[in-house]
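Is this the right way to post structure tokens for a design question? Let me know if I should format differently. Anyway, here goes:
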């Protein structure tokens, strides 16, 4: 119960509003479901559209990752930094 409150208190108002709009919000609030709350947070801040096709998003992400190439003039450090952002 305390953990749920601590996690919830760290969210900004806009993120709280987004999470409150979820159909499972009331149930999760009543149960103080911290795991559900953290999962929703991860999804909200990942930049993935929650209404998008999950499989299509996965294929697109894998394609982007596998097609990342180092430019001939790019240093190893810069490439690794860019690669880790994909």
């Amino acid at each position: 119960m305390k953990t749920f409150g601590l996690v919830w208190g760290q969210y900004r108002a806009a993120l709280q509003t987004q999470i409150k709009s979820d159909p499972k919000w009331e149930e999760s609030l009543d149960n103080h479901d911290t795991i559900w709350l953290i999962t929703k947070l991860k999804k909200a801040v990942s930049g993935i559209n929650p209404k998008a096709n999950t499989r299509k998003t996965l294929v697109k992400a894998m394609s982007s990752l596998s097609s990342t190439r180092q430019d001939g003039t790019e240093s190893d450090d810069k490439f690794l930094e860019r690669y880790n952002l994909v």
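Format looks fine. Someone answered above. Worth noting: The first helix runs from residue 2 to 9. Residues 1-50 form one domain.
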